Amino acid sequence: MKESKSSxxxxxxxxxxxxxxxxxxxIGMCPTLxxxxxxxxxxxxxxxxxxxxxxxxxxxxxxRNFIPDEIRIPIFVxxxxxxxxxxxxxxxxxxxxxxxxxxxxxxxIVVNCIIIARAEAFAYRNPVMNSLMDGLGIGAAFTxxxxxxxxxxxxxxxxxxxxxxxxxxxxxxxEPAAVMLTPPGGxxxxxxxxxxxxxxxxxxxxxxx
Amino acid sequence: MDDKLLITPxxxxxxxxxxxxxxxxxxxxxxxxxxxxxxIFGIRSLQLVLASVIAAVAAEAIYQKVAKKPVTVNDMSxxxxxxxxxxxxxxxxxxxxxxxGSAFAIIVAKQIFGGLGTNFVNPALAGRAFIVAAWPLHxxxxxxxxxxHDAITGATPLAVFNNTGTTSLGVKxxxxxxxxxxxxxxxxxxxLAGGIYLIARDVIDWRIPVGYLGTLALGTWIFGSPNGxxxxxxxSGILLGxxxxxxxFMATDYVTSPVTPTGRFYMGVGAGIITLLIRVWGGYxxxxxxxxxxxxLVTPLIDKYVVPKYYGYMHDIQARKAAAGGGTK
Amino acid sequence: xxIIAIIIGGVLVNNFIFMQYLGICPxxxxxQNLETAMGxxxxxxxxxxxxxxxxxxxxxFVLARFGLEYLRTIAYILVIAAxxxxxxxxxxKTLPGLYKALGIYLPLITTNCAVxxxxxxxxxxxxxxLMSTINGFAxxxxxxxxxxxFAGIRERWQLMDIxxxxxxxxxxxxxTGLMSLAFLGFVGLFKGLF
Amino acid sequence: MITIKKVFGGVDVPGKKELSKDCPIEFAGxxxxxxxxxxxxTGAPSNPIVKPKDKVLRGQMIAEPxxxxxxxxxxxxxxxxxxxxxxxxxxxxxxADAIILQPDGEHVSDESVKPLASDLEDLTPEAIRTIAxxxxxxxxxxxxxxxxxxxxxxENKPIDTYLLNGAECEPYLTADQRLMTEEAEKVIFGxxxxxxxxxxxxxxxCIEDNKPDSIEAMKRAIQPYSEIELAVxxxxxxxxxxxxxxxxxxGREVPPPPGLPLDVGVIVSNVGTAYAMxxxxxxxxxxxxxxxxxxxxxxxxxSNFKALIGTPLSFLIDKAGGFNGTPRxxxxxxxxxxxxxxxxxxxxxxxxxxxxxxxxxxVVEEPIxxxxxxxxxxxxxxxxxxxxxxAAYSERGLMEQAENxxxxxxxxxxACAFACPAKRPLVQWIKLAKAEITAxxxx
Amino acid sequence: MLNAIIALGIAGLxxxxxxxxxxxxxxxxxxxxxxxxxxxxxGANCGACGFPGCSGLAEAIARGEAxxxxxxxxxxxxxxxxxxxxxxxxxxxxxxxxxVYCQGHEHxxxxxxxxxxxxxxxxxxxxxxxxxxxxxxxxFGDCVKACPFGAMYMSxxxxxxxxxxxxxGCGACAKACPRGIIDLVPPDxxxxxxxxxxxxxxxxxxxxxxxxxxxxxxxRSCPQEAISMDKGTxxxxxxxxxxxxGICATKCPTGAIRDESAVSREEVSA
Lengths: 209, 329, 194, 443, 270
Description:
The complex is a heteropentamer of chains A (about 210), B (about 325), C (about 190), D (about 450) and E (about 270). Chain A is about 60% helix and about 0% strand. With about 210 residues, chain A is an all-alpha fold. Chain C has about 190 residues and is mostly helical. Chain C has one domain. In chain C, helix 4 (about 35-65) packs across helix 8. Chain D has 2 domains: about 1-25 and about 110-365, NADH-ubiquinone oxidoreductase 51kDa subunit (Rossmann fold, 3-Layer(aba) Sandwich), CATH 3.40.50; about 375-440, no CATH class. Chain D is about 25% helix and about 20% strand. In chain D, the strands form 4 sheets. A 6-stranded mixed sheet of chain D has the order 1-14-13-17-15-16. A 4-stranded antiparallel sheet of chain D has the order 2-8-7-4, with no helix packed on it. Chain D has a 4-stranded parallel sheet with strand order 11-10-9-12, with helices on both faces. In chain D, helix 1 packs across helix 4 (about 185-200) and helix 3 (about 175-180) crosses helix 5 (about 210-220). Chain D is globular. The mean pLDDT of chain D is about 95. At the B-D interface, strand 1, helix 1 and helix 15 of B face strand 15, strand 16, helix 9, helix 12 and helix 13 of D. Strand 1 (about 5) of chain B pairs parallel with strand 2 of chain E, so a sheet runs across the interface.
């Protein structure tokens, strides 16, 4: 296993561009679509993933020399499932409303491809600090993505963006399009955003030739 | 170049039909219904139609310009889309509704897939479904009374019919279109005239409208009455709502309907069944849009599995057997 | 009657793809041609149905009995993963024909969030073992319907000029959006029966 | 009377036969140069047996068949062999070896050109087949399949019915119509020779109903022969396609390729071929001339010529009064299946039934638009395949899928492309696919 | 707490044992490269690649049916590792380059007809082509489309140009050309007779400014006697004898012979 020579800064920032999980790699689609009816939902979902991802990355990286190759996948699953359960319990206790809205997508973080992919592709073959930065970076990028999608859908769908107690006032003459909060709106918004990413940022920072 | 001879593959003669001509035929066939809509629901209808058509053509032209593709608005397909979308709108809908609907229809449902011939759902219906989901109140409440043109309160005749199985409207009113409803769906006579024109001009296949309306009539007769089976008012069932408009002008859209005659019949029957499902047991009073959209989705499957038996099919197996039995060529 | 309602609800009304956002990754990934989509569908129906039954039983006889509901996530994923492996072994031995048709799709299913998702939904709905099984079966049918339709549509993409920016996922997502527009029509279907 | 069965597909095409249908057959004359391709037929090219500078006489064999599926070639007139060199082959659309003959204008016949028999009773089936091979007979309907091969079906596939194809469903062309009207007796004589050679007990003459004069003439000619019947078909393209004819007249369907009509006990021959057979037996004249319709809005005086094989197009067009305006398209064959040529400096071959000249007004120059899946091509395809998909696969190079869509079944009749509102060159795409698939199979 | 540990522990043990057993029992003989690739793949089985799971993709890559970078979640690391596994001396395969044996673009060769149909060389060739020369380039770029390496482009005049540095000598273009005017030659050869017309001199002269008119000046001038006449009407170089001297190119009256080293020298000096 070749150790990465990339800088910690790069490991953090790459998640936003070359390895942007949503727009460049197109993984973790289900939560990206399901919970992005508002910025707040997107934010908390993103934070949950960020935590799980960082936790899993760090532990996989720590244990990478002790995990036998053949059964690494089951071990990854355990290392991922544990923080997921923690997140679930914490959310249930402190953010019951959000937990209710996010529904089964919190436990489903367990099967989110982003996490197992990072564990396998990065943490399993990189030092702890790099893995930590990778987890934080990808997680942060994922959070930002969810908030962008959530923001667009929330604004177009309700006419305003509510975050905590603050709410952007609605624009005059604008009739919110309820469709943006429904699945069709979600799919189409994400599809268009991805296409836009492809022609702008993605075109510049292509990972593979 | 004209002094040189032209070489082209055979055949060297061609039918007079062109894509543009076909689209023009569709537009012509829609004119009676459009006119009827304008007469029945007032000049407001004309504004909606114009807004929709202009927006559709503009959307197509702008997209093609931006995407650096040849601008093909003169094939008239955008006009057809805009016109069809307008005819499905409530007559009192705000003017920006058809504009957004047409833009969505042309850009998202059609152009990004590569333009004419490559979209998999009927653009006009996708546009309509989109605005129904986006602004449901406008699309379900902005009705007008026929001839008096005042806003309507209470349920539409179709909603009443779905709940009670009866309608207070006579067949004559239904045929003339003197009822509340979408701009172009009410005047059945005008729609039928357009349909007959299209069938006579060999533009559409009769199997789709006949299969559709036949299935819907049969289903309405069986299930359409709250009093029991086989008592439904099947005639009102097909005349109320947009089934005639949809079956003649939308389900028959070439690009999104099967290419084989049998496949087209299945398309009609399938759309009829789903319309019935939504009308009788569903959450919406009208299911034509969704029924046709759903059949659009399964059209590739129909095309794949419903294919005509090729020439010589009957002998194919026999011939193979003979060949295996040592026969020579 | 409620069984029929659950099935129709799972297939048309609460379709996993178009309404619940479950199993999107394989839906887009494995829908490039009809045959693969059908193989995948068969495998999903098979696994989802039995996974629902097994997890419901596990819930009832282990987790609920010992008050370990908070371990549900971790327990389910283990149960499903192990179960899929078991099925694979069993199938290879006893049903080689079926294994050939479905076997290669089995590993893909463990991480299909629809499988874990449906078991979670079952618990939330408070379904017993029988209802869970039916719900899992219906959900899988709906997922299969979606992917088979989509594969049919996608097979035509090879005959189209798609703008490069839209190729792959973007166009797949927009298509899915348009498809779910059509499925919106089923919202409220058989409401009286639920 | 024969009841005509329903046939799927086909298109109604403008007949345009009136341009030349009343013009009697005239001998076109001897051109300044005769170009005889070694490959004018299906199968192996013939093998030249003359050298440059050799003197040859009319009817003398100048190239012999090579292998079973091949045909002999004869000098159409007397003269000197100028060269054997590649020339542009109008049908194969590439350079191909040809014997160039410089006529001396004498038109002296070889001594072999003498009556072989006057009555069929004097000939055995084997003798008839030998004559067909010696005389270089090939199907004159277009495909140019060697007649001798066709007349010798394998023993396990007995022939019960022989169809004489006088449908001539291609628009514009009237060569067969004139031949049937003017030479009915000889055509039937040749037809009877075919029947005898193949062992068929029943013969049916098939004519489209837009040729009343031919029907009348043929009716009279078959009067004495109870085994020969007449089938009058409604005119619709491609009625005269071999497979469609069998389907319409007998209700049988030929198995898909490589199936042949003889798999269902039928042989089909063109009236022109029957006439050539009669000429071979009665006059000892090999296939050195044929009836060619020179027509189209672009020629001054549409005509039906008896022309020597190898006569340049320009010669025949001049005989027909030259161009009528500026030609835009010159087609060898009919408008549905013929080949457009880039100049008129090419010769006719054995399979050439017509020369068609169009001015700008008759030429379709619409842009090729995307397929709108109207399904018109599916509705008209006589082979009941779906041209739109095959063409689309071919366009994208997806040849395996094209093959699965039954590209090889295509009979290239052109009905689909005729009907296509988007003016897509469907047949060309399918032909390209067929070529690729054939190459793939060979590999 | 204790319950949890016991339950999970037991479950883990049972499942672990089961998985180990299964892994042991059903070890199937497979392409070793496939196993190697499978090892590098993330094992997420997410299906984003379009294949049924990671093993499906690994198999496809091993069989060469999928590109090395097909795994999206695996990212660059996986792609690099896989290409290393799959790397079968790609660098050394450039033993030949493609040469287009025609210079008859629209200014050089006469166009005798207008073509309207399937816009491809194959399509045009089916109808004999729109140029007078029945041997030369048709200019629709079938070869350019066939090139998997982007090593060809169409010049402004409508002739395909090979980018020598990118050409791998795979021969896809030669196969795509319906007129067979593209051939593979050793990359160190600079002098080529860029004409494939077997027509006689006078007719070539009529329709093409740069065609071989069979004057045989090159045959006589070649010190290596590497040039001979094919069928008497077309000069041809035997590359095994040619030493790139370029004398023939200077003698050719029509410019049908091209000396690339001379051309590049000119470009440098200019």
